[in-house]
Amino acid sequence: MGRVIVFGSLSQDLHLHMERHPRTGETVMSGDIEYRFGGKGANQAVAAVRAGAESFFVGKVGDDPQGREYLERLAAFGVNTSRMEVVPGVPTGTAIIYNDTDGENMIVVAPGANHRMGHEDLAKLDDLEPGDVLLMPLELKHDVVTAAVQLAADRGARVILNLAPFAPLPATVLASCDPVVVNEHEAELLENAGIDAPSVLRTLGTRGSRWGELQVPAVPAQVVDTTGAGDAYCGTLAARLSVGDSPADAMRAASEAAARCVEHPGAQPPLP
Ligand code: RIB
Q: Per-residue confidence at 269, pLDDT binned at 50, 70, 90?
């Protein structure tokens, strides 16, 4: 069985539903607030375990009810939480998600305990070995993510870097990732920044996804909420590659997972 180790963020997601997103300076009304579980890293770890990998989440929660509940939830999904920590005196990460009636969203993240992940936490990746996949979004401090890429590459593990939210990491770092995963918006930012990477997988929404010469169509879905679709894609891709699927098969499974994700509210499915 493949191992997927997610070194990343988790958040309590506060969803606000509105007819359309506000413009700068404008006030709009929302329906009742919904509290859900999210954070790109945790969403990816949940997707990886659901796709059949042994999934580890390396991250931090605050010493608050949200953090404690989240630890239990990840374990209930079957994610290995033995490398997680509770940080005293710091809130669990929180994201405010503005959902409009088309199922599109805008997200603002307050990192909380996620930004207490530091270089000392790299020791939790010391057992990485060839065959493992280290999967990371970019909601941790960039110098820590960069060091994790280097460590995993030195140990012969595959690194999948989800460049979300976008940051112009050096080409030398991206060169160690196979692939760098970007959505259309992030792909444009990467191109505008003039940064080349040898292995880039672009998710293209309803047009599917492309990795080099490989193009895989999207799977039809009844869209309720697009939050977390990219994470479902990344976690599933990592899981399927870790168990030996071909890139095309892994992309197909990832597209299927993303389609199923947009059909439920929030980034993660209900507990089984
Ligand atoms: O990708 C979706 C996620 O982005 C949400 O769950 C939110 O927490 C933000 O991190």
A: very high
